[in-house]
Amino acid sequence: MRATTRGGELLVSPPLESIFLKPRNPFMKRVPRILILSSLSLIIAISLQAAEKEDAVVRSAIERVSGGKLKPDSITPAPVEGWYEVVLGSDVVYVSNDGRYLMNGDLIEIGQRRNLTDERRTALYKAAIDEVDESSMIVYAPKQVKHTVTIFTDIDCPYCRKLHKEMQSYLDAGIKVRYLAFPRAGVGSDSYEKAVSVWCAKDPAQAMTLAKNGEKVESRSCTSPVDQHLALVRQLGVNATPTIFLEDGRRVPGYVPAQRLLRILEQGKR
Asked: Does residue 100 share a domain with residue 205?
């Protein structure tokens, strides 16, 4: 406020900015806000309608290209303008917003040298494995756990047996090993029946060691998790044994010695 005198009388006037910025009519104060809110609501509504339309276009494109066999698990805007990321199980593809083009490959962010597709797949792997109850796995744990790996194993696989024979070296390195069943010969095969017998044994960990050593395991049946594990095999696209998943979701195919696996876990790279 400013004070002036006129003929000895003190006059007080409001600041100039209040005269120009403060609306005299309360209605005039509300109108701009109403217009802004209305405009924002309209923009949001139009954007949502456009996104829903493009979502439907992308979904239709996936169904067309797969002959109706595939349905997207999620459709989200890709880092590249005009494209959408489509998740199909553990696969990631990209479809243009007009549904005309599909790209099946890795999207690389050149500036930071990041494989964005691989990062997304890794997150999907981790989420899928995290949903599996550890009680359905056969677990070998050291006294002090530094890292945890989850391995799809086949009892009759030579490199699976090699890895298992070196189990103590993994435990000595502080690596907790969790087995999921992947009898590659399929349901009803000898490997499948061995897996069921091992998982149904009174001591599955001991039974696994016997089976991996080529010794006969008592034939048993129960409500085993082997079929559930095979469903996860299909979901993750696992096609070989052993296949190792690290605690952050990274996937390492094949047999890896304990010390090398420890370096991979601690360095965060293969």
From this structure: no
In a domain, 6, yes or no: no
Say which CATH number the domain at 161 has: 3.40.30.10
CA dist., res. 102 & res. 97, Å (int)? 10
By annotation, the residues acting in catalysis are 154, 157, 160, 184
Q: What is the pLDDT along the chain (270 residues), one digit of tens a residue?
A: 554 555 555 455 555 444 444 555 554 455 566 655 555 555 554 444 555 667 899 999 999 988 888 899 999 999 999 999 999 988 999 999 999 999 999 999 999 999 999 999 999 999 999 999 999 999 999 999 999 999 999 999 999 999 999 999 999 999 999 999 999 999 999 999 999 999 999 999 999 999 999 999 999 999 999 999 999 999 999 999 999 999 999 999 999 999 999 999 998 654
Q: What is the pTM of this model?
A: 0.77
- Assess if residue 9 is contained within a domain: no
